[in-house]
Specification:
335 residues, alpha/beta, 12 helices, 10 strands
Amino acid sequence: MTQQNGTYTRQGHANITAEADIVVGVDGSEESFAALRWALSESVLSGQHVNVVFGWTDSWNVGAEPQGESEWRAVRSSISKVLNNWVNTQCADIPIDKSTLSFTPVKASGPEALLEIGQRAQQIVVGRRSLGRVARWFLGSTSASLAEAATVPVTIVRLPEHDANQVQQDIEEAFTGSINTSGEDVSEREQHIPIQTKSIAVGVDGSRLSTAALQFAVREAALHKAELHVLYCWQLKDLGTIQGYENAIAPIEVGQQTAEATLHDILSKVDIPSHVNVHSHAFHISAAKGLINVSQYVSWIIVGSRGLSGLDAHFLGSVSKQMLTMTECTVTIVR
């Protein structure tokens, strides 16, 4: 990548190849800070290089148009200092190895910058735009357009709703009178609440992209020491012709057996380390509905990008788009 008209792209890291990089987009929003924390936490486990990217345009006030390379260098340095400050303030509790961290201010729109810089990355990470489900569906979002255009996996991090949960608790206490009268310190009580083990779910259907998604999920489950749930969501029309029912509709029980056999075959073709705890599930439900339901119970869902694209996806939908719109957790779309 080159430098033209003040556009700057990352310099190669001496010890880590571009394929191993995590590229994360930040813009100062709470959603992008959630993505930044996620990416840096991932790098602590994996040792990967993280490239923090800020895409800016002429509408972003950086003063008069720089003239010459020395002025462009000053602008980039100023933005890099802001990015470094965001890391220091938003991720102070994450044990980051600064040698695996770089900052890239780019004169380009956010998605354009991420697509260019992240075209050979292991994954691109962004935060999910704060819109309601209906608004996200009809208006779209940066994350949705990025996931559609990228050639590498894109992880869309959902902003934690700690504040919303606290408000909900406050309202419940106000209307139900559930006030702590035990005299026990709340923080001490919370220490006894078991921490939910992080779990990952991946949707498979036997396609090449779903196999890539499964391989990605296996790697992440091993890295995070997480439970891995492999889901095969099926309907009779998806199973093709079932032996013995060439001229008839197979009973649901037979379909379930066929689906479980298919899932077993899918898993047998992927190398899964023995220390990864895998749970396989075949559910008689559409893929989108099944995965959206599962998102309530896991912290991360991974799917292939198989489905419609462009205008067809916008108006008719696809599994991956519905995942971005409706899920309750972080989502990775593998391409």
